[in-house]
Write a structure and sequence with these properties.
This protein is of the alpha/beta class. The chain contains 22 helices and 20 strands.
Length: 570
């Protein structure tokens, strides 16, 4: 169905003084009809470039790619290739164009000249196939992230493609949305025999595919079933990737190689652990005797007040944040997380209630507030704009009216804190890797010497190596500067390993405020509101049910290894 020989693609640089970028190098690939293939690789490995060749958005510089026997370099084939190969991108908002769900799904078939009666049938059938029939007349902006992504998939399916290529479709979604999309993908592959090519950074998603292709530096370096791919743990780590947590655990325990929690449970006898292991004690949140640094008092925010589009985003929030805390804010898409954090530095103001910094209303000095409370958005590289990294980081301090000496001191200190040395000063920020861009953007906020740093999904879209780099730098930053860090995340693993306090939001309210141990030990509660627990926590909870000697409040692979090894050897 899809076959490529010596596929090479070179991006020509606009700047003639720079060498062209070879994005794909002599790729040979063969994908059969009805396969479910996951594509892995670090940021910049060539995954998205390859995906764009599959439906002729790009044409090979050298070599050949055939889709259904059609050469993608021949412009005469472009229309037919794009009819047969549908693309779903990372952000569904970039693909949804109509004001009503069913109209958006109908858009593709309409442009193909499909008869109105057939369009109606396709819209009905495809919405049913992605379990969105009940939302046909909804406005897309009223849907959750997972629902929007399913509408985007339906819009592609309505054109009756035989291949669907999904480029990081769940990167921006909460756990419930990710599950919805993955279940939909597998359903379409199994029931309708649609060939699925899934680009992802989530190892657990790749483990559900029939075949995994791993890319590095524009080439395919591994191509095998998931079990074989994830058995090569050291190789995957050397490529800036990883393996499912459960695979890493079984490897470190010297047990049979597995790739799912279910497999681990099938091959592990909890009764092997004979002696009682006391439940690990986790610190409770103590009443802080010092006054709060930031405080929200009865804060509510209503969008489009007194109109037909009125929506209460957050309601009656009371919250105290203290100096030096690391707080994770979790919640499903649309729960109010982003609205809440934008109140912290007065990007938006309360409809009701007030926001205080050290007891003073933030409205009294917004300029001072925004210096003291820095906000780094979900894709911070979009905040980069200067010609060099140094100038970009210096932009904020310069607007504060600091002297040249103070600016230089702040910039160098900030870049050093995020691990970007002098060799980065004169580089263009757009030449950096994904993880380096994130660190440069964070440095731009740090250079203003804030007391509070808010990070909205700082690891979204990063490969495992880039994610680890970012979180290691955040930890070092906290240790070195002692500033308060507020982390918004859809990843329960990240929240569990980074925070000492977790806020859970649901329907515009803070419904839980506690330690990670308390929050993630209540899996039923989290599942009910569209979240989940870390994979390793799910496993340990299942083992605890079979053998109470095994603690269930475990959030990392290394902690699980220590506990289980101690049990075996006791």
């Amino acid at each position: 169905m899809i076959s490529g020989e010596n596929l090479t693609f070179i991006y020509e640089e606009y700047d003639s003084s720079k060498p062209p970028l070879v994005a794909l190098k002599n790729i040979d690939v063969n994908i059969q009809a009805g396969e479910f293939v996951a594509v892995l690789g670090h940021n910049g490995s060539g995954k998205s470039t390859l995906a764009r060749h599959l439906n002729a958005l790009l044409a090979p510089t050298e070599g050949t790619l055939w889709v259904h026997g059609l050469d993608t370099k021949d412009p005469a084939n472009t229309w037919q290739i794009r009819q047969s190969t549908g693309m779903v991108f990372q952000n569904p908002d970039n693909q949804i164009i109509a004001t009503i769900v069913e109209e958006d799904v109908a858009f593709g078939p309409e442009n193909l000249g499909v008869a109105p009666e057939e369009i109606r049938r396709r819209v009905t059938d495809t919405l049913a196939s992605v379990n969105m029939s009940d939302y046909a007349t909804f406005a897309p902006h009223h849907l959750s992230g997972g629902q929007k992504q399913r509408v985007a998939i339906a819009g592609v399916l309505a054109m009756h493609p035989s291949v669907i290529v999904l480029d990081e479709p769940s990167a921006m979604l909460d756990p419930s949305g990710r599950k919805e999309v993955m279940d939909t993908i597998i359903h379409l592959n199994k029931k309708y025999a649609i060939t699925v090519i899934l680009i992802t950074h989530f190892m657990e998603e790749a483990a559900r595919a029939e075949r995994v292709i791993v890319m590095d530096d524009g080439s395919i370096v591994l191509d095998a079933p998931p079990r074989e791919i994830f058995s090569q743990i050291e190789k995957m780590q050397s490529l800036g990737l990883g393996v499912p947590q459960i695979t890493e655990l079984s490897h470190l325990l010297g047990r049979k190689h597995v790739i799912t929690v279910e497999e681990f449970l099938d091959n592990f006898d909890p009764s092997e652990i004979k002696h009682y292991i006391y439940e690990e004690t986790h610190t409770k949140i103590q009443t802080n005797p010092s006054p709060p640094l930031l405080e929200l008092v009865n804060v509510s925010h209503i969008y489009n007040s007194k109109s037909v589009f009125e929506k209460t985003a957050i309601h009656d929030i009371n919250l105290k944040i203290y100096d030096g805390e690391i707080i994770a804010i979790i919640g499903h898409t649309g729960s109010g997380k982003s609205t809440l954090i934008q109140h912290f530095n007065a990007l938006i103001k309360p409809t009701e209630g007030e926001v205080l910094i050290e007891g003073k209303n933030v409205s009294d000095s917004i300029k001072d507030l925004r210096r003291r409370v820095g906000l780094v958005f979900q894709y911070p590289e979009h905040q980069l704009f200067e010609v060099t990294v140094y100038k970009d980081v210096a932009f904020g301090p310069a607007r504060l009216g600091l002297s040249e000496e103070e600016i230089e001191k702040n910039v160098k200190s900030a870049l050093d804190t995020v691990g970007l040395g002098e060799e980065f000063y004169e580089k263009s920020p757009f030449e950096l890797s994904g993880g380096e861009k994130r660190r440069a953007a964070i440095a731009g906020v740090l250079a203003m010497r804030p007391d509070v740093l808010i990070l909205d999904e700082p690891a979204a879209g990063l490969d495992p190596r880039g994610k680890n780099e970012i979180f290691e730098q955040i930890k070092k930053m906290h240790q070195a500067l002692g500033i308060t860090i507020i982390l918004v995340s859809h990843s329960m693993d990240d929240a569990a390993r980074m925070a000492n306090r977790v806020l859970v939001m649901n329907q515009g309210k803070i419904v839980r405020d506690d330690t990670p141990a308390e929050i993630f030990s209540d899996a039923l509660f989290l599942t009910d509101i569209g979240l989940d627990t870390p994979q390793i926590t799910q496993l340990m909870a299942s083992l605890h049910e079979k053998n109470p000697n095994i603690p269930k409040r475990v959030f990392s692979v290394q902690e699980a290894v220590t506990i289980l090894e101690r049990g075996f050897n006791s």
